[in-house]
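Box S1 | Example of a co-folding query
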Amino acid sequence: MSDAMQAPRPGPDDTNVPDERTKVHRAETKTRTPVEAKREGPTLDVVKNDERVKVFIRSANQQTGAIGYTEHGERHANTSADGARFILKSLGHDVRRCEIAAVAAYLHDMGNVVTREKHAQTGALVAKDILMDLGFPLEEVATMMGAIANHEEDEGGLPVSAVSAAVIIADKSDVHRSRVRNPKSTSFDIHDRVNYAVTASEIKVSRKEKLITLELAVDTEVSPIMEYFEIFLPRMMLSRRAAEFLHCNFALVINNTRLL
Ligand SMILES: [Fe+2]
Ligand SMILES: [Fe+2]
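Box S1 (continued) | Returned holo structure for fe (ii) ion
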């Protein structure tokens, strides 16, 4: 049996998905009112306001910067959280699962506060204590631990739940020039170049077509498309696997041309 067949099916559509039109991820999607959120359990806002989360993400960002990686701070955390919530909401998953996906995505790179290597696994353990302290039910904590621990393609990550699949796609989709920290374009490495070349990045989800699309605008004067594939092909393969877990195909569109 394939992963896709084992994946939990989307629940009833209680997210006010208006119809089967293609959705475009542009801004944060609100899935419920604050009153509803309270009734259902801790939310992303509670996690964002936790002092440990603030300090650990800030420190993780500084430490990844010190060893030459792109931005891994609150901007990346927020973009990933919005993306993961958007993907599951667009596919009709229930509001609580959307919230859990947003929280897991927000915390997915926090393990960089320990070391870059194995940051997915350490991040899951760091998150576990905080999430339990904040009152998340044990089953939700377990789902988020699996999602955080499995987000990294070069650490053996694989989609293990719908939440995990959404975190993977949202994380891998966050390629943008704003993540480049090297101020000197003359000393850009290939990662800087590819990230800097991406001037727009958008996730689209069509529930009707069962299709998740990553659309990028790439400045080919900065980096040829080939360089994107040179460094990001494993990420795209993992994204495709994650989309399959959600019973969808995955498409990559660069400069209006479908390449995957
Ligand atoms: Fe990561
Ligand atoms: Fe990430």
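The chain has one domain: 23-258. DSSP finds eleven helices and five strands in the chain.
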